[in-house]
Amino acid sequence: MYKSLSLSFMPCKAMLQPRARITRQDSENFVDYRTKVARNPTMERLQRNYLFPEISAREAEHMEKYPNAKVISLGIGDTTQPLPDVVASSMANYAHNLSTRTGYRGYGAEQGCKELRKAIAETFYKDMGIQGKEVFVSDGAQCDISRLQAYVDSSVIIGQTGDVENESGRYRNIEYMKCGPHNSFFPNLSKAARTDIIFFCSPNNPTGHAASREQLERLVGFAQENGSIIVYDSAYAFYITDGSPRSIYEIPGAEKVAIEVSSFSKIAGFTGVRLGWTVVPEQLLYANGFPVINDFNRIVCTCFNGASRIAQAGGLASLSKHGYKAVISLVDYYKENAEILLETFESLGLRTYGGVNAPYLWVHFPGSNSWDVFNEILEKTHIITVPGSGFGPAGKEFIRVTAFGHRENILEASKRLRSLL
Amino acid sequence: MSAIHQNLSTAISSSASTFLGYNNLKNIKSSNVSLPGRISGVVKCVSSPSVEKTAYKTKVSRNENLAKLQAGYLFPEIARRRNAHMLKYPDAQVISLGIGDTTEPIPEVITSAMSMRSYALSTVDGYSGYGAEQGEKQLRAAIASTYYADLGIEEDDIFVSDGAKSDISRLQVLFGSNVTMAVQDPSYPAYVDSSVILGQTGQFQKEVEKYGNIEYMRCTPENGFFPDLSTVRRTDIIFFCSPNNPTGYAASREQLTKLVQFAKENGSIIVYDSAYAMYVSDDSPRSIFEIPGAKEVALEVSSFSKYAGFTGVRLGWTAIPKELVYSDGFPVAKDFNRIVCTCFNGASNIAQAGGLACVSDEGIKAMHEVVGFYKENTAIIVDTFNSLGFKVYGGKNAPYVWVHFPGQSSWDVFSEILEKTHVVTTPGSGFGPGGEGFIRVSAFGHRENVLEACRRFKQLYK
Description:
Strand content of chain A: 5-15%
CATH architecture of the largest domain in chain B: 3-Layer(aba) Sandwich
Helix content of chain A: 25-40%
Oligomer: heterodimer
Number of strands of chain A: 11
Structural class of chain A: alpha/beta
Number of strands of chain B: 17
Shape of chain B: globular
Largest interface: A-B, 114 and 123 residues
Mean pLDDT of chain B: 90
Number of helices of chain B: 13
Number of domains of chain B: 2
Number of helices of chain A: 13
């Protein structure tokens, strides 16, 4: 009997799927009739399930195996701390008002409510020349990335890539810009081939590295020389502590070459509430002079119907004077978690990157295979992490540890890790 | 007051297009229109890329599929017209029976569940982060048992979404650019537009007002608003909406049986849009899965928008049976699950709490009351046009009234009604060439507005 969440794998050396236990639930015997519609060939190219449901599945398995173990999840970057009161009550009130004649609202503008668009522009892009009308409110960065039709997995789905090369684990037709300790986690652009679109996440998930102003100037210059468009993911900008740029638009000229995607998920704990935004500057033009914003607007009006108004009310509250202070302390809480974990790993003699400008630590286990390390940590300390190879071939020797969690769990996890050695 | 759509228009072709009535082009040429008061922001209508020659351009080619689209999506276009009209007549009481936007408050049993969930998120025990992309288990189970009891659709066949419109595009992404599709003509514009965007279609053919490579299944009074399937070419995907937006027609059991048979013979997949199922007044089927054999050929999309007034809250679902498989035997639901996990991150948890309350016993009763209210509106509108001697369709099983204006351009009629009665409707040709000569009047509105609108119609057409 077919189960929709069963996992199937095509063994791929570089991705390293050592799970022999997973069997594909075969529905072929159960079904007599088949339509004559061919499966979308791009779906066949996807190597395995999206990474995070995979991690969830492993967690579930482990908990079954050790029902009494207190599993601590430092894997999926899921926020844990409650929403600030001012934000929650604004959403509660908004919801309540929907049952009144004067407070009821129907369809909202697909681009988002004007007030929120303006507040986002003023809060995050002050003095950068970005206006409310260039801000598109969404139900989160994950959805926006697909609407922009890119990123590795959705790139595969939309058909921009070729097949995967089994040895290296890379998809053909994608330019992979290696980021590692050897190049201070900023790609060597002189070695990068020209592509139309450049995805760049800073502060980075998973490495935690925040690109410097100088590095981003080089990136913008590179995009200008090549006529490329940067899709800049700044979902973790709020975690920056050292003065690194928080937006690509801090770099002059970026408004002509870059789109920026961000989210309330890791700022306000909105992982379940669903709210984010994308900035498409009016000056960003296609080769024929057509403004990218016009097409993005068309996509948003056709393929989407706006973020939930209740979520938008919450977003607005989080950017209010009172709310903003509250979300800053929320983020500070996770930043303190990161400090604790950073200290822990360093005390174990492990080279640890990140943890300073992002809620992720990128721990190096030279010469090892990240899924093996993942399994060992899980088995010996009951802590879930994420194997670096899940993020691409260059992650092979790394483990990503998130700093989201209740303080007591972070402290407990640190204790267990210290006892490992 | 609903939010005004801020429309950054795409390049509007100055020659005949589906959306632009010939007479109105002069109002829409390149101009910057500043809308004061409640409406703010600049609405820029560009008839050509208005950039200086020296402006920096990237070397990235525009997605040519988007260039195929003839104009903006229909409903922001209607909103733009409404806004322009309100500017022109600042004292007029404009009544909106155009965009199918709900107006009545959401029942308290539902909003209080959402308020409670919001408060709970500010507590340690009540806080939740990422939810399952497919939706919260309880809600999936409740949707299955409420709408698909005894139809063999189960909890894990249900994928909760932020609404049918988003799901339609996710389904297109799922099917890819190599499939062919059929739509009813007229139909809800998102099916055709998303098909164009995904590259499934050819260019727009102005003479017939159709996109190449789409099979348009004409639905008119002559064929009882059900296509003559013997004249329909085989396509991979068939979009079918019943009760229908915009015609209001609900297909009979017999007709849907024929449709399912047709799909089976051709090995096609039906995407069945049942967003208005709760408006059915007679014994027309409410779900495609009431038809034997449908589980092997169909998936169903639906929404809480028109039942619970969730147009701004955003919640819907798609049901994909396990029996629905591709030609190679691979289950469609499995790929859709992958799409949902990669291109989506779940519907808002607060909206889902509302959804759970919707399908509670009290919630279902409350939704029926809301639906009943709009149905009464519909009856009033139907009566009005009937009394004026018009041929009126729909209005029985859906909140839409499809009024025939034989031999007239629907955009002209739309403009005349707007100009003379300050009532916004929707021109039938916005839904496809089969809608030409018709006006869609939606029945969402406060009772007094619907009554007032009908008074004005009577004045205009007496």
